[in-house]
Amino acid sequence: MNRAWVREAVRLIEADANRSADTHLLVFPLPPEWGIDLYLKDESVHPTGSLKHRLARSLLLYGLVNGQIGPDTTLIEASSGSTAVSEAYFARMLGLDFVAVMPRKTSPEKVQLIEFYGGRCHFVDIPAEMYTEAERLATECRGHYLDQFTYAERATDWRGNNNIAESVFAQMRLERHPVPTWIVVGAGTGGTSATFGRYVRYRRHTTRICVVDPENSSFYGAWQTGALDYTTGMPSRIEGIGRPRVEPSFVPDVIDEMIQVPDAASMAAIRLLRERTGHWAGGSTGTNLYGAFQLIARMLEAGRHGSVVTLLCDGGERYAHTYYNDEWLAEQGFDVAAHSAVLEKFLESGRWAS
Ligand SMILES: Cc1ncc(COP(=O)(O)O)c(C=O)c1O
Fold first, then answer.
1. What is the pLDDT of residues 103-133, one digit of tens each?
2. Mapping DSSP to helix (H, G, I), strand (E, B) and coil, where does residue 165 land?
3. Which of 99, 128, 152 is the last residue of a domain?
4. Which of 23, 45, 82 to mutate to test the pocket of ligand 1 (most atoms within 8 A of CB)?
5. Range of the domain at 91
6. Quick one: which of 108, 107, 79, 106 has its CA closest to 98?
7. Which residues sit with their C-beta closer than 6 Å to ligand 1?
8. What is the CA(173)–ligand 1 centre distance, in A?
9. Does the reported pTM lie above 0.70?
10. Radius of gyration of the chain from its Cα atoms, rounded to whole angstroms
C-alpha cells in the first residue's frame, strides 16, 4: 500500500479531530433537593451531527493502519444511518468513493445527507441482506467493507485517546458527583456501550453501565438469556439502535443492567427534552432518557444521591417528518400521551408510575 498516501490520509483525519472542539455535557434540570444530577453528552454537535462521527473516524484509521485502504480503494458500509453519513464525510476528505448499502425504505433525509457528502446509496429490498450485499460489492470492486457491526468494538480505543468515556469523565470532574452512578446508552453496533463498559472497569470506577433497548430488538433477550444467537428478525423503529440480530460488537459482559423501553415512550421523552431544555434530539436519545429517569426514580426510592450520564446521540432535525410529526405518529400507532403523563408525574414527584 502507498505509505506516503497513508501518512497523509492519517494526517488529514487527525487534523480534522484537532480542528474539532469536544462535544458539550449538558445538564437536564431536575429538582435540586433530589440530590441527583442528570447530564446529556451532546453528540449532535459533531461535524456530521451524531455520535457516529467518532466511530467513522476510528473505522477509517483502523482500515488505514491495517493496510486495507489506499488511494484507489472504494469504501463500502452496511448502514442506513448516522454511520454512513459520517463515513461519507471522511471518504470525501480522503478523495475516496463511498457506497452505503441500505434498505430501500431508508428516510430520504438520510439518503440526501449521505449524497451531500459525496456518498452513493445502494438499496436492498430485504434489510437483512445489507451485510452480504456490502461484502459482495466490496469483493466485486476490490474495495474495503468498513463493517461497523464487526469492528466498532475493536476500532475504538477503550483505554482513552479521547474516546467518549474519557471525555465524559473529564467533563464531570468539577461536578458535585464527579463519578456517575450510572451511564445509560443504547446499542446499535454495541460499540458505545462496549467502550463505556471497558473504560469504567479499566479506570476502576464504580460507575455501572445500563443499556436501553427499543421494541423488537434482540439485545435484551441475548443479555438476559446469555444466548448470543438470540434473534427477533424484526427491524427496530428507533433509528440507530435495536437490531434484529445480536451484532458482533455487542459485549454483554460489560453491561450491568438492561432496560426495555416502549417506542412510544422514546417519542414522549424527546418531546419532553425539547420542552424542558429546547434541545432537539433523535429517537435513540428518548430511549436513553426514559431509561435514565427510571434509574433516577430507583435511586430516589433508595435514598441515594449521585449523578447519571446519558447521550444526546443525534439532532432532531433529521426526524422532523417522523418522530416530531403528530400525523406520522398516529399512522404508526404510537400513543405518546400515556408515557408523557408518566414522565410529567415523575418530574413532579420523583415516583415512577408506569
Ligand atoms: C442515533 C444513534 N444512536 C445510538 C446509536 C448506538 O450506538 P452504537 O452503534 O455505538 O451501539 C446509534 C448507532 O448507530 C445511532 O445512530
1. 888 888 889 999 999 999 999 998 889 999 9
2. helix
3. 152
4. 82
5. 53-152
6. 79
7. 50-52, 81-83, 152, 186-192, 239-241, 282, 284, 313-314
8. 26
9. yes
10. 20
